[in-house]
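dumping the sequnces here before i forget
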Amino acid sequence: MAKNKAVSRSRVPTHVAIIMDGNGRWAISRGLPRLAGHRAGTENLRRIITACIEFGVKYLTIYAFSTENWGRPREEVDGLMRILEDVIDKELAELNKEGVQLRHIGRLERLDPKLQEKVLEAIDLTKNNNRLVLNVAFNYGGRDEIICAIQRIINDGVKPEEVNSALVSRYMFTAGVPDPDLIIRTSGELRVSNFLIWQGAYSEWYVTSVYWPDFDKEELRKAFDTFAKRDRRYGGLSQTDEE
Ligand code: IPE
Ligand code: IPE
Ligand code: MG
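..and the predicted 3d for all of it:
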């Protein structure tokens, strides 16, 4: 019964961002290699995308590989690259059918040229879909994104007095996407880890100790239920105070 319980559409966040953390610990706790955890995490992502569509989420941003993750052992980095390639090969047609528009945030330059091409093709194929925008943060870092924005702002000859919040947002990798309403982090760490540091200025946070591969539709519903009860004040007063 609980599985089919719906979240009222008006309280579903428009933009959900997820730090999909805990794949390694999930695997180790089962005596499996870390990459098995990443595979399980990827299968879970597929389920969560479908759940987001069902709940009526419009934008989903997922942290798949950070600019700091290059510091992991070569074997793990290579495995994560292969997983991205496999996901595109195996899931793209179905995602396209489901109306998912794929986007990438981060820098593609450091990836293998063939993989870059694959990502660009996937983006092009799905560019007119509008059921769910899926931003894949891969080789993404919030500081790197801000540095990139500053470089382009200077390059474009923008005058200092023209720089404002709206302009900076337009220079982010997420240009045109509303800021995340809710950022979820699985596996319990209480840190930002360089994720959406500009866009997350007023996002609500939800942290659970559940490892990413176990974060199912029911866990997502719990996160949305919690979000629905939050009083988003943006530095002002709550609705009830104003009345
Ligand atoms: C998150 O899981 C996935 C990536 C960072 C690619 P981790 O690999 O960080 O899992 P833990 O934190 O070691 O358990
Ligand atoms: C954040 O998780 C990056 C991704 C989920 C892709 P990490 O596991 O890399 O972050 P830290 O090292 O715990 O801060
Ligand atoms: Mg981690």
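The chain has a mean pLDDT of 95.
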